[in-house]
Fold this sequence. Notes:
It contains ten helices and 17 strands. It has three domains: 17-115 and 262-355, no CATH class; 147-232; 360-563, Pseudouridine synthase (2-Layer Sandwich). Strands 7, 8, 9, 10, 11, 14, 15, 16 and 17 form a nine-stranded mixed sheet that branches. Strands 1-3-2-6 form a four-stranded antiparallel sheet, sandwiched between helices. The chain is α+β, with helices and mostly antiparallel strands. The radius of gyration is 34 Å and the shape is flat. Helix 2 (123-142) runs antiparallel to helix 4 (192-259), helix 3 packs antiparallel against helix 4 and helix 6 packs parallel to helix 7 (337-344). 35% of the residues lie in helices and 18% in strands.
Amino acid sequence: MPVNNQTDNILVDDCFNSFNASISTYNLPEKFTFPFYYQPHPLCLQAAKELQLHLSTQTDWIHNFGLNNENEGAIGKMFGVLLVQNKDHEIGYLAAFSGKLADSNHLDKFVPPVFDVFDEAGFYLQGQTQINQLTADIKALENNPQFLASAVNLNKIIKTAEEDIDEQRHLMIEKKKQRKIKRMAAETALNKVDFETLKQTLSKQSIDEKNWLKDLKIYWQQKIELVSQKHRQLNSEILVLKDKRKSQSSELQKKIFNQYQFLNSNKQSKSLFDIFCSTPQKTPPAAAGECAAPKLLQYAFIHQMKPLAMAEFWWGASPKSEIRKHRHYYPACQGKCKPILSHMLDGIEMDDNPFLHNPAEARSFDIIYEDKAMLVINKPAGLLSVPGKNIEDSVYLRIKNTYPNATGPLIVHRLDMATSGLLLIALTKDSHKNLQKQFTKRTIKKRYCALLDGILLEDEGIIDLPLRVDLDDRPRQLVCYKYGKPAKTQWQVIQRNDGKTKVYFHPVTGRTHQLRVHAAHSLGLNTPIIGDDLYGDNADRLYLHAEKIEFKHPISNELMSFRVNAEF
């Protein structure tokens, strides 16, 4: 229905924002936004536009977003807007930020946190003060000269023992060699009686040396234990304090989890602990409940406002690990927000979940090559390589139904659901083993074609950015030099046209979302693939196609090469 403009009405609450511009020509959304995959409603876009103007012009607080080439210490932020109808049936919006902003939880125009852990009168800061004091006490004891000396002495005696025992072992080896030489020489030089006497003597020497080594080990074990006892006595107080700190930290965390109480439209309240206890991780991840979306909904429910639609956008420089573009809209995260929002949105009619829709239901794949050992197919965009969590239809199931006598795992390698192109299928176990071995040894050559949303200035290059999964927002990948797996991509420009660049990608490794992240990340090409709804902007499809593959036939060992040009 058409929206009545309410810009002249008095606000019913400090955080309720009436629209500055007329919204009389807009229609209200029929259902609430599905928060994990959406296109922002026009009214949310207008609300975000007004909020972004506020962020650009306000002078009440200072935060380095990294927008003026001030990259050192820059922290971009996720902001959210929630379209609401208040108790007086006025249409407006609420605004929120994730975490803290300008070192504060409370700023004008923005809703407050669900629970303010930094409230000076609250239990958290008091509890944290006690834990910090325990940490200081532990550090003081660990830096005590007597404790440090005991640790040095213990390490010294352990090292001396190892060296002494090792020296004895080497001496025994040398003596064993000498006894062997004596025995071999005496076997022909001595008579039988004298030879048996020599053998008994040499055998006794061997036993004596083994007993000596045994006694030596016991000697050093006793000395080490004596020094260890002194060290343990000094360390016992530290261990007691560490156990106390661990216990207090655990209790404080549980108390915090229970203080985060989330409402839904039915006025049902659940703590953060209760929400996550039924999830695989059991325990809430760090900063759960501090994202913009839960803050917005909590405020709306408390103040009896009806949520109509929502959107979240990034403002500022991207983190070094993630891909976040200034002013771009992003869905709520899976790890922190999904369990919370599942509770908070219970009973609210939402847009359809697109993850339950199979976009490839009416699409078929072309068989490019076929023999008794294998297939080469051209997978359409939108079709899964293997069954997913919500959709079973996949290349695997279709091949299994079409070739019921095929053996083995069938799928040799995978393409993302959104990626089209050439895929190898093994029809026998031996073929699968052979082809996988070629992938492992990286002797199979692949080439992808992609259309990038921007103009690349250079003509070619190599991207080397290690990747790992974002544990809080699967299946997104992060650039991570500490825990990431090596990921390398060669690229070259094919053509530039109309603000877009067509490129070839030659993946040296085959990590999940490798080409997509390497294209979009600021340390890569900083230019996302068109249609990349995870790392760029949505479009009619992901413009990424596996167009060429070269390998050796698993049976004949013949070099084979196939190419299917991209449709874009």
